[in-house]
Amino acid sequence: MKKQSNKYIALIIFLLVNVCMTTTAQTSAEFKKLICKDWKVNFYELNGEKLKVSEEQQNAVIQYNANNTMTMSQVTVVRHGNWVYDGKEKIVTVDYVNPVGQDVFHVIKIDEKELILEINDMNRGTIRFNFLIATK
Predict the structure, then answer these.
(1) Architecture of domain 27-133
(2) pTM for this prediction
(3) What are the tens digits of pLDDT across the range 48-82?
(4) How far is CA 124 from the centre of its chain?
(5) Going by C-beta distance under 8 Å and a sequence separation of 6 or more, which residues neighbour residue 111?
(6) What three-state secondary structure class fits 52?
(7) How many C-beta atoms lie closer than 10 Å to residue 112's C-beta?
């Protein structure tokens, strides 16, 4: 009888773990559908302190495309790159073409209207960006 109940407990734990993993992990297709838009910085935080967005940052638009390319346009700078999403780790890696570089963002939240990304900068600490859909 004890072996029987242990099997049921093990089965229940297995099912609960799978349900939790399934509901929290986002597929690449779901993520792509949500991120492939034009985004503008609403605000950002540096080490938990909310900072004012400069005029140049207010005018910046980041465009993620379905072919995994991206463009970041600011007043004086345009950067192009490629992005990849790791659904298991909830990470977006952006490889920039000009100038060459790489950023690894942790996806904190994404839905139809809001995107929150966090990056750990070796020099400044943790930076959290809150983006909203860019209006034309």
Answers:
(1) Beta Barrel (2.40)
(2) 0.78
(3) 999 988 887 888 999 999 999 999 998 788 999 99
(4) 20
(5) 34
(6) coil
(7) 9
